[in-house]
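If your schedule permits, I should be very grateful for your opinion on a structural question. Please examine both parts with care and let me know of anything in them that strikes you as inconsistent. The record follows directly beneath this note:
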Amino acid sequence: MRQGRFSSSILLAFALLAAFAATASASGPKGPRYSLRISSGETTFPEWEQVGSTSGSVEPSTSVAVSIIRGGVTVYKDVGSGGAWLSQVPQVGDVVRLEAPVGTVIGQIVYDGLPVIDPTVCAGSTNFSGSNSLGEVVEGYFVNKVLRYNNYGVAVGTHQVGFGEAQVKTLSGTTFGGSFLQPLAAGEDVGAIETLKTPLAGEATYTYTSETERPVGPCPAPPPVYQPPPAPALQGTLGKLLRASIHALLKSGLHDTVTINQPGTVVQGLYGKGGTMPAFASATRHHKPPPAVLLARGAASAKAAGKVSVVLHVTRRGRQKLRSAHKVTAVLITTLRSTGGATLNLQRHTLTLHR
């Protein structure tokens, strides 16, 4: 009986070990893991922390080469076992190449200088936004560090006293947006990381990472409020008057043209000479003292600068005066009014009308 129980226990143990091994095999990496990383920018303490670098690595370990190629020429290259590291950062347009083992190209990219953090990610703001490479996942963070001193009061490095991650809420094409849970502060550093993971043959993976970091600066000044340029001074000219008679005025009115240099209205009044003339052409057909009789009136609108035609029609009092007259001396008053409210009187013209 004991022997049977012992055999059952051994079988159960082997079954558990087999299940654990299968789970570990399914969850663990099954192929090499390659990575290429570019870090750019600077920190609040550049004398203690260097950010700019280009590096590559592989697991399991083998020979690795990282190269920066500019204009077809390799300008920087490092070779190592398991990893390679350069203190240089590529320029926009450079080709960055990862080889593992040396001679076998795993991946290469044309560096685009991204990601970039917007200037509005600044002190006192919770905003996190900027530009990224198309199709890459973006993360963000802020970090607060202070100088670390020895017992003699000499700075020997930095010490991290604060850290927070950004909540990336929008990732649309080549831009990202989000926020921090608390406003950023001067003295902190803010960073953005974009990542693209690509599966390779043999269950291997290749991960490209580009990171930028900079000190939190003051917020940019708001853009100036647009002020439209002032309108030009109101100007105009009176065109050549057509010869008119009392009969033609009574039948079809007086026709003329006026040029105005901006949108507005043109008002003209024809007054019988012999009374005090008004300061401006009458805005209505009914004219009250001063006593000069308003014989005819016309108006026209100008939607833009240019020439407009005006037709002056006889008023009721003007028709009474002209009906029996054989000769009338009249004064033409032309008033321009712009849409902005400016008013201008053109030079007055005296007309003599015969029957």
